Amino acid sequence: xxxxxxWGVGYGTKVIAMQNAQAAxxxxxxxxxxxxxxEIPKCEVIESKKELGKLKGEHSGIVLQNCAKxxxxxxxxxAVADGKILIGHGxxxxxxxxxxxADADMNKSMRDQKLTSEGINxxxxxxxxxxxxxxxxxxxxxxxxx
Length: 146
Prior knowledge:
This protein is α+β, with helices and mostly antiparallel strands. The chain has a single domain (2-145), classed as 3-Layer(bba) Sandwich (Pyruvoyl-Dependent Histidine Decarboxylase, Chain B). It has three helices and nine strands. It has helices at residues 14-25, 49-53, 95-112, and strands at 2-12, 30-34, 39-41, 44-47, 57-69, 72-81, 84-92, 121-128, 135-145. Strand 6 (72-81) and strand 7 (84-92) form a beta hairpin.
């Protein structure tokens, strides 16, 4: 099993910005069904838009997008604990805040389950800077391939 991480940003009308961000993340050709819980089995984590571009069909995962006029950011934080990978997510008007929210979400999940991190953490984030009279869209995604 592998978990692919990707990110993308896009600009335009709201719909076009979302489509451009999905294309930049290379997830436009696959269907991602929502994970039941924000955790996956421990597996190889790969950041590769090129590999994602080769995938077809439906896969489990998480897509976090943030679209608005102005600066937007989205972030995922991953931690290995007790043989699984816990996922935290955050979106905000800036990159630093989105990453902090993702870390806080991941840490809350570990506290709730009374788990201790094995010391392996990973972050992926996207930050779309403002463009006058256009929507900005930032997308981060994790796609699980069995």
